[in-house]
Design goal:
- The structure is a single chain.
- The chain has a 5-stranded parallel beta sheet with strand order 2-3-1-4-5.
- By secondary structure, the protein is α/β, with parallel strands linked by helices.
- The chain is built from 19 helices and 5 strands.
């Protein structure tokens, strides 16, 4: 018998007591929680530790929401912040999107959500504006724990509390991103998200970016670079809420990306379940990644490719600064020597050879090369054939 998480009302009450607040604002995301709980208590196969982590994840997300609403009440001037998103990096996982995102965000005049901010996007009570040390300290403890629990983590997806990371962590706290299915084995919930509203979370994300910008005065005038493969699920929301942004699609052969991502998912699921198998992970994620690519193609076709930029993984590895310059120029950024130097400095400080190799194969997950080639045939012919 697998461990269970409690009902929504129980966790809502716990969050209110913890935060000392009771206003969630628009509770549109409650429906998402109600859809998620049965999936957690059924197909996720949670261990005792996994159930405790799921409960803590939901409660802490609700606490962040309570504090977020309270911040806007206490500081209505936050709403006047003007957020300019220059680029939204998408692309399947393991396609070089993290490298591109962090390189672009490292350039002078650019910014991205830092890892410690994605975990706690609202300043802690009593935190001095512009001094996020309490959140940084908590993030460091969490990251150290994750590295101990998943020894391969830094070779799979290198993280640093001050490096830009994915907004899917923020959106996951509104139960509306692929972070949920990337943490817990809940393919039914992924299906539910695809069939329900995926735009409201982007309206909330824009408000959260306003708060991040207001909380850090050094960001004044900077342009944002967003990134997560999870944006593939909600490109309609990206286009509606951030119409000025270029959508940067990173491309790499799924023959490489599928087993790499399956390996990452299997390691992450191991933190919350002892019984999810590699074969289950392979079977679910080959279909899910194909679905995300199909969604990308459909949304791109709707706008006739407007605002989309393509980046090949091989070209990015060969000439990263050249690719970065091209993307920024397409996004309307005047690329100065200082910006190029900033990107080059980031590349030099984050070389792949400084990390242990990430080892994986299709066969580990019950998959074959022929199976992947067939599943992604149309995509490979459209975007990778040269």
């Amino acid at each position: 018998m697998t461990a269970k998480v409690p009902d929504r009302d129980t966790m809502v009450a716990e969050a209110k007591a913890k935060a000392g607040l009771d206003d969630f604002g628009d509770t549109w995301f409650f429906a998402n929680i109600d859809a998620l709980i049965p999936c957690l208590n059924g197909e996720a196969k949670l261990s005792d530790a996994g159930a405790a982590y799921a409960r803590e994840t939901i409660v802490s997300s609700l606490v962040n929401r309570l504090r977020f609403i309270e911040m806007f009440k206490q500081h209505p001037e936050i709403d006047a912040e003007e957020v300019e998103v220059a680029a939204v990096v998408a692309g399947l996982p393991r396609t070089g999107s993290t490298m591109l995102h962090r390189m672009l965000a490292a350039a002078p005049g650019m910014t991205g959500a830092r890892w410690y901010e994605t975990k706690n996007y609202v300043p802690f009570p009593g935190e001095e504006r512009g001094n996020p040390e309490p959140r940084r300290a908590e993030a460091k403890v969490l990251l150290d724990y994750m590295c101990q629990a998943i020894p391969e983590l830094m070779s799979i997806h290198p993280m640093d509390i001050d490096q830009p990371d994915e907004e899917l962590i923020i959106m996951g706290q509104l139960f509306s991103s692929t972070m949920i299915e990337g943490t817990f084995f809940v393919p039914s919930y992924a299906r539910w998200l695809m069939e329900n509203d995926r735009i409201q979370v982007y309206r909330d994300l824009k408000q959260i970016l306003k708060l991040l910008q207001w909380s850090d005065p050094s960001r004044k005038g900077a342009k944002w670079v967003l990134k997560t493969p999870g944006h593939l699920m909600g490109l309609d929301g990206v286009i509606e809420v951030f119409p000025e942004a270029k959508i940067v699609m990173t491309h790499r052969d799924p023959v490489q990306t599928v087993p790499s991502y399956a390996s990452m998912m299997f390691n992450l699921y191991g933190m919350v379940s002892d019984t999810v198998t590699k074969e289950e992970v392979g079977a679910v994620w080959i279909d899910r990644l194909a679905e995300l690519l199909n969604t990308f193609v459909a949304e791109r076709d709707k706008v006739n490719g407007r605002n989309f930029i393509d980046v090949l993984y091989t070209e990015q590895l060969a000439e990263p600064v050249k690719v970065g310059r091209y993307v920024l120029q397409q996004a309307g950024v005047v690329v100065t020597p200082e910006i190029e130097a900033g990107m080059a400095e980031w590349i030099e400080a984050n070389k792949r050879e400084d990390r242990a190799p990430h080892k994986y194969s299709l066969e580990d997950f019950g998959l074959s090369r022929e199976q992947v080639e067939e599943k992604f045939r149309t995509y490979r012919e459209a975007f990778l054939a040269k």
